Amino acid sequence: MKVLFWGVRGSIPVPGPLTQRYGGNTSCIQLETGVQPVIIFDSGTGIRRLGQLLAARGTPQEIHIFISHAHWDHIQGLPFFDPLYQSGNRITFYSRKRDEFCLRDIIHKVIEDPYFPLSHEDWKADVNFVELEDGAGAEIAPGLIMRSSRLNHPLIANAYRIDHQGRSVVYVTDTAPFDHMVLDRDFIPKAPDLSAPVAPEVAELLAVMRQNLVDLCTGADLVIYDTMFTEEEYNRNPHWGHSAASHAMSVCTQAGAGHLVIFHHAPERTDDQMDRMMEGIIEQYKDVDMTISPAIEGRTIEID
Ligand SMILES: [Zn+2]
Ligand SMILES: [Zn+2]
């Protein structure tokens, strides 16, 4: 199994000299299992380059794209995903089932005039949308198992796990920890008081969500986790729905994961600041039996 990082940034693309080493494109990760389909997590701006390479293969592709949620940084690259405009390709989108709207409608709405000169009617690929109930899983191809779990984020994001031939990767973005508040459909406009006691029913729901995520990560070779915040940034904006490294470590150690990848980097974090942040995290957890490394655009991680 091989994980390729095409976009590692959160919130908004930030190209330029200050972010060149870690990369400025937003969320997009490819998982190569050696068999069809091509597996992609999210379609931030990083998917454009991946799409060019897939389209250049010149053969019909089976592509499965797992969308965490529809915030801009996770879908913004889609209009530029070349395989959509090639006949013969079969592209399946997976997302969380929602009561109020579906991913197909969201994507159709933002890929049309006046936002973009083309629309979904220009797609030549056979495109399908699969909506997943809470905690749904499926064998998406022979021996290729997908599982999912909800995260703690405004609009609600889904985490995904893929297992193949005894190897496993989990994609966990975007999420707040499961300590203080449940983030659901609505955005909480003001940071709550973190020292206030959590209502028992809220604590209970958070505990269930956290346990489901720990189960999803159990024994995983690699967990890619939203660690956009420093501890101090989390304390300032806990209602934004992102984690710090300590929150990811807490889930990953309990789950016995082998390797944590620090992901969804804050747009304002420069390469030098990322270096310092990584040094701090690695030093803090040097006694924990787990590899910790950063997501870097263009990086490939092989899982043997
Ligand atoms: Zn995001
Ligand atoms: Zn988000």
| N/C terminus separation | 7 Å
The CATH C-level name is: Alpha Beta
Helix/strand order, N-terminal first: EEEHEHEHEEEEEHEHHEHEE
User: Total domains, how many?
Assistant: 1
What is the CATH architecture descriptor? 4-Layer Sandwich
- What's the CATH H-level superfamily name? Ribonuclease Z/Hydroxyacylglutathione hydrolase-like
Main beta-sheet annotation = 7 strands, mixed
User: Which structural class is indicated by helix and strand composition?
Assistant: alpha/beta
Percent of residues in helical segments? 10-25%
Backbone CA Rg: 18 Å
Mean pLDDT: 96
Poorly predicted runs of 5 or more residues:
none
Shape: globular
Number of helices: 7
Bound small molecules, by name, code or SMILES, are: zinc ion
**Strand proportion:** 25-35%
Number of strands: 14
Descriptive account of the structure:
The N and C termini lie close together (7 Å). The protein is α/β, with parallel strands linked by helices. It has one domain: Ribonuclease Z/Hydroxyacylglutathione hydrolase-like (Metallo-beta-lactamase, Chain A). Helix 4 (200-217) packs across helix 6. The strands form two sheets. The protein has a seven-stranded mixed β-sheet with strand order 6-5-4-3-2-1-14. The chain has helices at residues 47-56, 72-75, 103-110, 200-217, 231-236, 245-255, 271-284, and strands spanning 2-7, 28-32, 38-41, 62-66, 90-96, 126-132, 137-141, 144-150, 158-164, 167-172, 222-226, 259-263, 291-294, 300-302. Helix 7 (271-284) links the parallel strand 12 (259-263) and strand 13 (291-294). Helices cover 23% and strands 25% of the residues. The mean pLDDT is 96. Residues 69, 71, 153, 174 line the site of one zinc ion.
